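Extended Data, panel c. Modelled sequence:
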Amino acid sequence: MSVEQFEQLSLVVLITGLIGWMGFIVWDLAKRSNAGKLGTAALFFALGLGVAGFVIKTVMIEVLNV
């Protein structure tokens, strides 16, 4: 395994772990603040936009590098 392959694999695994950890933090925040269903949905929607931006950026880089 080359250094570049290791770095790419590490990036995917660690970013996935970070997104999961952020999801847990948002869920815990919503639970502790009694945000309700709408508040929890709003918090996860905002987190989802950040995740979607990261995924879109990654896909666009791959498409443009062809």
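Residues 3-64 form one domain. This feature is highlighted in the accompanying rendering.
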